[in-house]
Protein 1
Amino acid sequence: MTESFAFALDATDGRARTGRIATPRGTIRTPAFMPVGTAATVKGMLPGSVAETGADVLLGNTYHLMLRPGAERVARLGGLHRFMNWDGPILTDSGGFQVMSLGALRKLDPDGVTFRSHIDGSKHRLTPERSMEIQRLLGSDIVMAFDECPALPADRDRIASSMRLSMGWAARSRDAFGDRPGHALFGIQQGGLEEDLRAESAGALRAIGFEGYAVGGLAVGEGQEAMFACLDYAPEQLPADRPRYLMGVGKPDDIVGAVARGIDMMDCVLPTRSGRTGQAWTRRGQVNIRNARHADDPRPLDGACGCPACRGYSRAYLHHVSRAKEMIAGMLLTWHNLHYYQDLMAGMRAAIAEGRFVAWEAAFHAARAEGDIEPV
């Protein structure tokens, strides 16, 4: 345990990196995948079960927790860790993504954003200062600067103006964050798919100074090829001695490609959302357990997986409870998906540490290319 926030690189293999983020609440092994607990819960999972999958850190969301149950209430009840019974590190998104995703319910101005709640239509104001206050009340270990992110595609002038607004908000976030030993503030690089705008954003963030840096504004409609083209240069524009976090990514092959390009942290709702809709991620690709071909299949989802769904249940059973819309279906598939994602991260960490990441990556893609196991 440590009383401060620190990042150490243990090994590199090409541009892929493995290391450790030390926080007072525990160590985050990188590359790290953060399960999303938007509203103080990882849907379908108990906190102890999430920890059993190998997760070191969870993600919460400022916007949603601000609306319900309210940051002040969470603070009165002992903070987000106690409230949701998770004693490990928590990273909170600043609410900036909702500026983009809830565009019809907000009004943007240079000072901040006015929202109409998607729950009851009530009016709320979010600024860099208020975002920092909410995240302080929640007690998050890693705080994200407040930013604005345009959906792609967007024209260059829109991307440039948005990026420069976000850099102003980043400076205000830094000032409002203050001196909080043991807690970290991450800046968010913007600039769309424009290399020079990304460089300008990175320069502004480095001048302000943050404990970590995120690559924002991707996975917002641009497609994998364009995202990887951006990641071919964007992480290298950020400090090498600080964690690099790719926000909102993604599918397993997105994650592997991001790690290969120097990313240390990722988050996405995909493994939990997929689990609730009958989709499972395995070493041989994606499986729709609701398909009829699984109805008589006694085999596990993934014979190499040690999660409860694969240890104790057949594809036939998972098919049945998913088609019957039983709660256990979403619970088991979510547990499996989160377990698979954490196995993926552990595999990459070991491969990087041993200098065999290229071979590991080739084997990962080869297994997926084979496709799911043949029907019985």
Protein 2
Amino acid sequence: MTDTEEKTFWKGSPSQWLNIGPFSVAILLAAGITAGGIFFPPAFIGLIIPAIYALWSYLTVRCQTFELTTERLRITTGVINQNIDEVELYRVKDMVVERKWWMRLTGLGNVHLETSDRSMPQIDIPAIRDSINLREDLRKKVEAMRDKKRVREMDFDETGDTEGFGDLGDIG
């Protein structure tokens, strides 16, 4: 095995804590249907609706996976039909970790990526454990891939000037 082979260094899925809202709604809806079923027994059939809603919410999060290799980020989504999208690591321009109060309590965080990829300019890796270390590992891999591919990022503002150079036409 050589050092040039692609290796997976992180693979994960979002936490089911993302479903706290949908699960709460399903429980409240089930409680309402149960209360109505006391007075009108055929209403108990309606318990299928919150059960299916909760199951679908669970599967949507469970079937979303993120795989970071030494060369790319692979995103897999979809419960019935599966979509696999990839972004080369050298295309990652910026990374931000967001940890809302409830995420801090549960040890989770969101990693937001800004890329130069046209099909996926913004990528969110939601509700993952150890998000700060993942961001740092990802930053190192991005820099290594840029060095390997000899790629440098150059940003332009709306006027077409390169960032940090200003208007070079006024020099002389």
Protein 3
Amino acid sequence: MLSKKFAYALRGLTYIALHGSIEKKISLQELSDGIDVPHFFLGKIMQELVRNEIVSSVKGPGGGFWIEDSAMNRSAFEILKMIDPKVVASNCLMGKKNCDHDRPCPLHAEYVACRNTLFDSLKETTLFNLAGKVEAGELFLDEKNNSKICTL
């Protein structure tokens, strides 16, 4: 249901929140290596996050990404809406175009309940929360150094 693009965006944002600042910008190469995500795919995701003012960036030597304090309160749901809006707008797990409360597909009720629970959780989860849980050792960003991977 959720795309790799969204997972990579959250992992990248969490990494930047933990390791970056205006004084210590995170290069795309460091980010790619740090979360074990393909460099070129991650670059496109980061461009989208910069355009949507979730992260800030500077090009050139000493450049890279960082997250302003104000963006740390952005929710995972806001990131999902930017990165993968079709998931948010999706009304039918079975792909029916006219699936709704009046003409439900066989899985409509179950899907709506599951989707709403997931979306509520993502609305409550901020970048600040994710970074704090990784820093506390409750979640992990990579498989190389830890036993778990945080993909949400």
